[in-house]
Structure formats: C-alpha cells, structure tokens
Design goal:
It is built from eight helices and 13 strands. By secondary structure, it is of the alpha/beta class. Strands 1-2-3-5-4 form a five-stranded mixed beta barrel. The longest helix has 21 residues. Bound molecules: guanosine-5'-diphosphate, magnesium ion (MG) and zinc ion.
C-alpha cells in the first residue's frame, strides 16, 4: 500500500476513540486523529491517509466548514455539535412536555447559521395537541417555519418528512424522548446496514460507544441524530446578535426609534408595541428576553 495516498472523506460517525468516515468512493472506514490539534465532528469533510500496519486511517486535516452548529457546554465553553448541515429539524411531542424555549433556540441557531429550520410534531397518535400548543405551533408557521405532523409509531406522514429532507443534510434535535431516533430509524433505508457495519468493525476495538452519526436517505437527503437535551444554549458572542435568532422581532425592530434598540427597556420600541397588540407572540418575546439575559451572563463569564 502506498502510504502517501490521501483521500477525501466525510465524517459519518463519531465514537469515543475513533471516527467512522465515508470516502468519495463510498467506502466506509475507521479513522482517528493524532493528538488534539483538530477536532472533527459529524458532517466534516476531511483528508485521510493510511497508517502503516494498521487498519485505521489517519485524519490529516479538516476542510474549512460551511457552518457549525455549536452550543454552550456545562462550563460555558463552545462545543461544536455538527458541521456542514443545511437544516435543523426540531422534534417535539408530548410526552415529554414541550419546552418551546428550546425550540426557539434551535430555530434561532439555524437563523444565525443561515440555514433552514422546521418543526416536526411527532406522536400524533397520542392526540397531544392542546389549544395552547396549537396556538404556539400556528405562530411558528406564521413566521415562516414549516411544521410537519407525524407518528413514528403508526408511520403516519413519514413520507412527508422524507420529502422535506430531500437533498438536505439535516440534524434532528430536541428533547430526549421526543422520538428523534424512532423517526430516523423509520425513514433511513440503510440504518441497519450501517449498524451491522459498525458492529463488525467494532470487534477490533470493543469499547466504542456511538456519539452521533449521519445516515443516507433514498432521495439524496442525509440525516443526523443527536442525543436529547434537557436544555440548549447557543453560543452568541454579543447581545446585539440575539435578535437575529428571532425573525419576526428582527423585522419589527426596523421600526424602533433607536437603531440599536435591544427591545427590552427602551421607550418607543416598535417590538414592544407589537407584543402588546399580539402581532408578535408574547411567548416568543419572553423567549427573546431570556436568551438576551443568558447571552449577557455567559459573555461576562467568558471574558
Ligand atoms: N406513541 C408514540 N410513541 C412514540 C412515537 N415515536 C417514538 N415513540 C416512543 O417514544 C420513546 C422515545 O423515542 P426515541 O426515538 O428514543 O426518542 P429520542 O430520545 O428523541 O430519540 C420511545 O419509547 C418510543 O417508542 C410515536 O409516534 N408515538
Ligand atoms: Mg435518540
Ligand atoms: Zn425596539
């Protein structure tokens, strides 16, 4: 084997010790990094080269990313969850009781990355949608986010989800137990194949636990699962940028008296007027203020 040959590949799975990569010829291989200089995540385009006497490949470099989905981890440090995605699909259901602030933050992350967002309401077989939920969900549609209702259990509307993911690289996010993995298992053709591939490769290194992976769909779409969260906080480096996470607040803010209005304590604030008239959902405005506060606090801690 010529050990100088480098290949282009994509990270399709991350484990505690190594990564599963898919080469441009659709070959699935295990690869690892040397030291901690680079930290590839799912979705990364990388360059790999063979290692003499080993079956694992070496990841030499990460091709510059189009985008990164990041979050603030427990010590308020920036953590990259995924790279090069085109859509964030937020899955909600009941149970677990929906936390709409989490939904807002994921949608906001998509806005700040300049990618699409949608909401998937799962478990419709349980008839969980109350009047209050219905109002909240309708408002998301009103401000521009597609909403798809489905059930992974009865397989209802899964074809709509598949259609929506066509040619996208989507990450499924949301609270633990909402049904992300169940939906993905249903819609991904090769998940079992991949699982087999992984378990056969695992024999050489037993204690590999999966952190995340990307699966191919029939229609050119790719879907990435993510572990459920109790809370999600994006990394936002200035409070000015928080407004970019809330499209309807950003749009209304153009009418504020001060062009640096934070829509919090100022007088003559068009956003606050719109909230009073309920042209902006007051719940979304609360969400905005909460994210503003968190951003302020986190930036104090970090600098
Ligand atoms: N009734 C019902 N249960 C579901 C549905 N989808 C998932 N579940 C159940 O909800 C639980 C959590 O699902 P899971 O896919 O692990 O959620 P995740 O944490 O978001 O990945 C499991 O017990 C699933 O069987 C659904 O459409 N209807
Ligand atoms: Mg899951
Ligand atoms: Zn304002």
């Amino acid at each position: 084997m010529n050990t100088n040959v480098t290949q282009q590949a994509t990270i399709i799975g991350t484990y505690s010790q190594r990564m599963l990569v898919k080469t441009s010829n659709n070959e699935v291989l295990f690869a690892k990094i040397k030291g901690k200089k680079i930290q590839p995540v799912c979705g990364d385009q990388i360059e790999i080269s063979p290692i003499a006497q080993e079956s694992d490949w070496l990841i030499n470099k990460i091709i510059p990313r189009n985008n990164e989905l990041t979050r603030s981890n427990y010590s308020h440090k920036r953590e990259v969850i995924a790279a090069n995605i085109t859509m964030i699909a937020v899955v909600v259901s009941d149970p677990p009781k929906p936390d709409w602030f989490i939904v807002d933050r994921y949608i906001g992350a998509a806005e700040s990355m300049g990618i699409k967002a949608c909401i998937i309401c799962n478990k419709i077989d349980l008839n969980w949608e109350t009047e209050q939920y219905s109002k909240t969900i309708k408002n998301y549609q009103l401000i521009g986010y597609p909403v798809i209702y489905c059930s992974a259990e009865t397989k209802s509307n899964l074809e709509k989800i598949l259609e929506h993911l066509k040619n996208e690289t989507a990450i499924f996010v949301g609270q633990s137990g909402a049904g992300k993995s169940s939906i993905i298992n249903q819609i991904s053709r090769n998940s079992n194949q991949l699982t087999q591939e992984i378990s056969s490769k695992k024999k050489e290194g037993k204690h590999t636990t999966v952190n995340s992976n990307i699966l191919d769909l029939d229609n050119g779409g790719k879907v990435m699962d993510s572990p459920g969260v109790r809370d999600y906080s994006p990394i936002i480096d200035s409070t000015y940028k928080v407004v970019g996470s809330f499209v309807e607040i950003e749009a209304e803010g153009l009418n504020c008296k001060f062009n640096n209005c934070s829509h919090a304590k100022e007088q003559n604030c068009a956003v606050k007027e719109a909230v009073n008239d309920e042209r902006i959902d007051p719940r979304r405005y609360e969400s905005y203020k909460r994210l503003l506060n968190i951003t302020q606090k986190n930036n104090h801690k970090r600098y």
